[in-house]
Amino acid sequence: MKILNGNNYLTYDTPVRTDFEWKNIDPKSGSIYGAGIKILETKNGITKTEINVPSNHLESNILNIKLRFDINGETTRTEFNVLVKNGK
Q: Which of 13, 24, 37, 76 has the most CB atoms at less than 10 Å from its CB?
């Protein structure tokens, strides 16, 4: 995942553009799940998204993002956490 504004975190109540780059994975087999994630398009092995996490949604300042994809016909799941900060 690459956060396009140059930060290594997301900001509450602020749409942030991100790219998910798929290496050796067919992006058509992939799914991305998490609070406030909106998929914009998938092209050339990159899924462009916008993430806008509502300030009242998370119990902690960590957004859990889940990925699901197929490798050689086998479904794989993984997840990772991204820090979310207040914009003030």
A: 37
The percent helix, strand, coil of the chain (3-state, each to 5) is 5, 55, 40
- CA-to-CA dists, residue 8 to 25, 35, 61, angstroms: 24, 17, 13
Enumerate residue ranges in the chain where pLDDT < 70: 88
Distance set, CA 61 to CA 5, 11, 16 (Å): 19, 10, 16
Please tell me the distance from the alpha carbon of residue 25 to that of residue 59, in angstroms, as a whole number: 32
Q: Is 63 in contact with 1 (CB distance < 8 Å)?
A: no
Q: What is the pLDDT of residue 5?
A: 93
27 by DSSP, 3-state: which? helix
Instruction: For the full predicted model, state whether its pTM sits above 0.90.
Output: no
